[in-house]
Amino acid sequence: xxxHILSVLVENRAGTLSRVSGLFSRRCYNIDSLxxxxxxxxxxxxxxxxxxxxxxxxxxxxxxxxxxxxxxxxRELENAKxxxxxxxxxxxxxDEHSRSAVVxxxxxxxxxxxxISPVTITIEATGSSExxxxxxxxxxxxxxIEMARTGSVALERGSGVLNxxxx
Length: 167
Hints:
The chain is an alpha+beta fold. The protein contains four helices and nine strands.
C-alpha cells in the first residue's frame, strides 16, 4: 500500500468536513490523517488528507471527492514535489535526573521545550513525519505520557499552485 497526500480546496462553510469525511466512511476508505484550515481566501479551506491504498483506490477517492458540490479542486501532492510538515506535542516523564538528557534529545531535533513540571517536560516539534517518528523513538525510554500530532499539512514546491478558478 502506498501513502498518498491529497490537497483539496473546499468551500469554507458548515457541513463541508462532514460531507467529505462521510464520503470516506461510506466507501470504507480509511483517512490516515486530516487537517483543515482557512486559506488566504476566507471563503476557501484547504484539506490535507493522507490516505493509504493503491492507485485504483486513489483514483476512486479523487473521482468521488470531485462529485461533491463543496469541492473546488483536488491534487495529489507527490513527495518529491511537495513540502510536508506536522506539529507534535509530547509530554515525557523527566525528573531532575533525566531532565537534561530529555532536553538534549529535544535540541538535537530542533524542538522546543514549552512546559516543565517537577516530573514532566512537554516538547513541541515541527517537521516531517519521519523526523517526528525519530524523536519519539529517542524519547520512548524516558516514558511518553501523552502525545498529540496534527497530521500533515502540505503545499507544492516552487510556483505550483492549486487552482481556485472555480470561485
